[in-house]
Design a protein that fits this description.
This protein is an alpha/beta fold. The protein is 44% helix and 12% strand. The chain has one domain (3-17, 42-213): TIM Barrel (Alpha-Beta Barrel), CATH 3.20.20. It has helices spanning 3-13, 30-33, 88-100, 117-134, 151-160, 173-179, 185-217, and strands at residues 44-48, 54-61, 106-110, 140-144, 163-165. α4 (117-134) packs parallel to α5. The longest helix has 33 residues, at 185-217. It starts with a helix and ends with a helix.
Length: 219
């Protein structure tokens, strides 16, 4: 499948994932109006960094294949939608190409679950690692984490990404049992707690490092 076709499918499938973006606009498309600009194209959205800057993001799924069957999700295994999957190299190339053309300042990456949580999370972490370590990409990266993924993978994701998030899905065991039976509340809460702990740890490390620099530079 051509990359452009994959992009159309996987950018459209990502539009339901929260990336801290909020905007509203009427539907306009230069391809039908004959003018310039469009509010309909999928793939690029916006988010806010901790210092308040608004950045444009390539917002895509790694794949919309999923082994789970959550009743509320368009990507569930029983859904009759076109499927596509990017390789790690394809996501990296798209991000770098879009960045160099000044279309985006960062990447938002989420995914359906392929094989299992760890395999999927590994692929996502690898995208971030290759961008950071092999391409020296300093732009913004937001990874949507998979709740059942191992703590080591969440830690690796945190080393490369600016932001990690987890979908709460449904707040009660009963809701999950009815609509997302393969998921469990303890594992979602556990992953959220793990992220919370990692965020606190990173904040403390930064505070310690800032305090150290202030001491070194003071006369
Ligand atoms: S695990 Fe995620 S992508 Fe898969 S069906 Fe459930 S909500 Fe959709």
């Amino acid at each position: 499948m051509e990359t452009i076709r994959k992009l159309a499918i996987l950018a459209d499938a990502a539009k339901y994932d929260a990336s801290c973006a909020s905007s509203g606009a009427g539907r306009r498309d230069s391809r039908t109006s004959g003018g310039i600009g469009s509010t309909e194209g999928a793939g690029i959205c916006h988010s806010y960094t901790p210092d308040g800057r608004c950045v444009s993001l390539l917002k895509i799924l790694l794949t919309n294949f999923c082994i789970y069957d959550c009743a509320y999700c368009v990507n569930r295994v029983s859904s009759n939608v076109p499927r596509a999957r990017f390789s790690v190299a394809e996501v990296v190339a798209l991000t770098m190409d879009f960045y160099k053309r000044n279309y985006i300042e960062g990447l938002f990456l989420s995914s359906g679950i392929i094989r299992n949580a760890d395999y999927t999370m590994e692929r996502m972490v690898e995208v971030a690692r290759v961008l950071r370590e092999e391409h020296r990409f300093a732009g913004y990266i937001h990874l949507k984490t998979i709740p059942e993924a191992s703590p080591e993978l969440l830690a690796a994701a945190g080393r490369h990404a600016d932001r990690l998030s987890i979908n709460i899905e449904l707040p009660t065991e009963t809701g999950l049992a009815s609509f997302a039976p393969e998921k469990s509340l303890p594992s979602i809460r556990g992953a959220m707690g793990e992220l919370r702990w990692r965020i606190d740890e990173a904040k403390q490390a930064k505070a310690d490092s800032d305090a150290g620099s202030a001491t070194v530079s003071s006369p």
